[in-house]
Amino acid sequence: MKFIIQIIVTAIVCFALQLFFPWWTLAVGAGVVAYFIDNKALPSFAAGFVGASFLWIGMAYYLDHATQSIITEKINKLLPLNAFVLTGLVGGIVGGLSALTGTLLRSK
Description:
Blueprint: H1 2-20, H2 25-36, H3 41-66, H4 70-78, H5 83-107
Helix pairs in contact: 1-2, 1-3, 2-5, 3-5
């Protein structure tokens, strides 16, 4: 149950932070959420990864829909993977590693 709660709270906190601050506040938000939700290391990493990944994919889809896919089509021609997959991976890795850091800081 803590896993699902951490995913939801990570997505909400990171979304709120990214409305006003730069992209890297995703790491701060995921780390703080993981610090306060007492989870083990691997579930905390996975929750941070999933929460941040879903958030960034959702935000990318929203921007893609708002701009009628102009930028996404050009990026998909340049990169070997879909732009949404790459966005989710980058956001997920940042969120997962920062959640792991927050969990490990709590354990010391």
